[in-house]
Write a structure and sequence with these properties.
This protein is about 40% helix and about 20% strand. It has about 425 residues and is α/β, with parallel strands linked by helices.
Length: about 425
Amino acid sequence: MTATAADLTSDVASYMQTLGQRARAAARALGSAPTASKNAALLAIAAAIDEGRDPLRAENAKDLAAGRANGLSAALLDRLELTDERIAAMADGLRQIAALPDPVGAIDGMAQRPSGIQVGRMRVPLGVIGIIYESRPNVTADAAALCLKSGNASILRGGSEAIHSNRAIAACIAAGLARTRLPADAVQVVATTDRAAVGELIRMREHVDVIVPRGGKGLIARIADEARVPVIKHLDGICHVYLDRDADPDKAEAVAVNAKCRRYGICGAMETLLVHAELAADILPRLARRYAEQGVELRGCARTRELIEARAATDEDWDTEYLAAILSIRVVDDFDAAVAHIAAHGSQHTDSIVSENHSSVQRFLREVDSASVMVNASTQFADGFEYGLGAEIGISTDKLHVRGPVGLEGLTTQKYIVLGDGAVRA
């Protein structure tokens, strides 16, 4: 599953081609693997992670020491650290995925045609998935598990800052797979930190079916620009909440506070609050007090600053994903102005309206072109578990082939199946 130092020659291209060939062969076996075999592998990997707690902590300590020496921020070091609780959570996550329904082989839409044939669609794996990610080593286990359960082989390339941790997790995955009949190459973790490996992975169209980047905007933008393999991605989470003229004030306050303050650093956090002009004088002072209690810095338009204390918002603020305790606020004249602002400045991730007006709600659902559109609900619900999808590999703001939280079903596609009984076409 992982290469030895001797395997990693200076020819990164050859090394990555080898990984791709092995993944393609493994994908053929995984695609027909029964659910019981996949679940057994997930449970075996979970057990190997539980058993490997001490080696995992020891290898993670090497990454943390190197990170401190290289000046990583406290936030990045926190993301990098594998505590006992996080190791236990990795193992629990594998068990949760094992308990989820298997999407592979599900058939829907079967219909009898006048010709006598039956036509429907069957869910099938995508094939080989390349996943490129930064910092958090737990992604290695999460990504491997989601790909395994959905019948896909995976090639995982973590960040150089987590190389020792990722190799240790890879060893646990290999140990778990060795206890099952699934191919050892079902999950392969790239063992080199050479950045050329990423360039090779995103161009291997003959071996890789889709790339999933997880990390900062710079990483994702580079992969989206350079990849020759289809990419499932989102760049920004510039999420909006619009408080309509007909919003219930208590609901508006609850949603607007939670959407910003529950967690600042997730892509579903609200970054811009839009408030109807007829509601602003009543709701903004209430919200300003709540945000002050949470230490949120407010940046507002001129009309906002007439009602509450806030810094002047710049043009750049409307296009910024803060991922921090900062919120931009704009007072808008009407529904159309709110939707126009979202269209101009949003990232097609998640946007919400708070309103008791059925007509406004229906228009918002139809007219806002985002992966998730919500009514009277916090944008922080944009999450696979909250949608009933289970664990997710990321969120897609693309329109093909999957949109929104990408769980097990999002890692599959469909093929048409046609059933006949000696049917011939006239």
